[in-house]
Specification:
This protein has five helices and no strands. The protein is mostly helical. α1 packs antiparallel against α3 and α1 runs antiparallel to α5. The chain is elongated and about 50 Å long.
Length: 117
């Protein structure tokens, strides 16, 4: 079971890397007001959702403790991120504030995962 959990943690990290990497590649464009949500951001957010849900299930099946409040906060942030990226995915440009909010929530999600114990 540990190998499977570690596999999903690795996939979860790949998802967050895709989401954050897509955001970071658009920072210069954000400053110019021409930022857009790239497909990597949508795929990364969706990967995070699927692997995160799988990780909660696998940890519960392995009788490991799961902090449901922490998972709920992370899930709420991710749903907002996924919703914003999905709805605005075909737009040529995205408002700076909306784009910055996705970056802020993505970063918050990372720090919640690492620091909330």
């Amino acid at each position: 079971m540990d190998v499977l959990i570690h596999l999903f943690v690795g996939l979860h990290i790949i998802g967050i890397a895709s989401l954050l990497g897509g955001f970071l590649t658009q920072l210069k464009a954000m400053g110019q007001g021409t930022a857009r949500f790239v497909p990597a951001m949508l795929h990364g957010a969706f990967t995070m959702l699927v692997t995160g849900v799988a990780l909660v299930g696998l940890n519960q099946a392995d009788d490991q403790p799961v902090d449901n409040v922490k998972i709920g906060v992370k899930l709420a942030l991710l749903i907002v991120i996924l919703g914003l990226v999905y709805v605005q995915r075909d737009e040529e440009t995205v408002d700076k504030r909306l784009f910055g909010l996705v970056g802020l929530f993505t970063t918050a999600n990372i720090f919640i995962a690492v620091l909330w114990t």
